[in-house]
Amino acid sequence: MATKYSELSAAAMRAAMVDSQLRTSDVIDPAIVAAMGAVPREAHVPAQLASVAYIDRAIALGGDRMLNPPLVTGRMLVAADIQPGQKVLLIGGATGYVARLLAMLGAKVHAVEESPELIAVARTATADTDIRWIEGPLTAGAPDAAPFDRIIVDGAIEQLPDTLVGQLARRGRLVAARRDGTVTRLVQGIKTDGTLALRPFADMDVALLPGFAAPRGFRF
User: How many of the other CB atoms lie within 10 Å of CB of 160?
Assistant: First the structure.
């Protein structure tokens, strides 16, 4: 049954999200929990979906883009191990939710988004932050601002372009999700000697990010 949405109910839903979705699944880092308990997801989804902004499933943003479930975001942030002052590249900034979380964690955020509609929402929703928005192909990253201490690819991909690996600093960390048939796994890796080996750490339902399809016959 539909109920009237309010800031009070949003705060209650954020608290419930933290307690039932995050804390029960090893997302207990105090800084991440505090950020996810404060940032209003409802500001980053279509207005008609504000009342379901905290469900444990992906939310359609329009076109073929989705906002990942809170747990996916939480697990990615834990794996990224963001430290204040680090320069972070976010691929697939969408409507700005993850970018704002990264900013709250003290990162210097560069967010790439190729959808004019989504980046317009993001710029408005994050206007009070120092997030740098780059409108362009997700696979291109932000070479002019590289290297980055952290790269987060906010969605499931089949292939990681060399262009993004090249923008990661030495000993930098990258977090993404790998689509392998019908299974999607969160992956992470640290760049060593110019190479990046990604290792899975959790099977999760992650929304597919367009533009990262592998050629036929390719194996990640």
Answer: 22
DSSP-assigned beta bridge partners for residue 133? 111
Residue 89 in tokens: 């590249």
Could you tell me whether strands 183-192 and 65-67 are parallel, antiparallel, or unpaired per DSSP bridges? unpaired
Q: For the CA atoms of the chain, what is the radius of gyration?
A: 16
Q: Which of 37, 39, 48, 46 is nearest to 5 (CA)?
A: 48
Q: What is the C-alpha separation between 218 and 220, in angstroms, rounded?
A: 7
Per residue in 135-182, pLDDT (tens digit) is: 999 999 999 999 999 999 999 999 999 999 999 999 999 999 999 888
Residue 18 has what DSSP assignment? I
CB atoms within 10 A of CB 215: 7
Q: Residue 128: which residues within 8 A CB-CB, separation 6 or more?
A: none
Q: pTM value? A: 0.93
Say if strands 59-62 and 183-192 run parallel, antiparallel, or are unpaired: unpaired
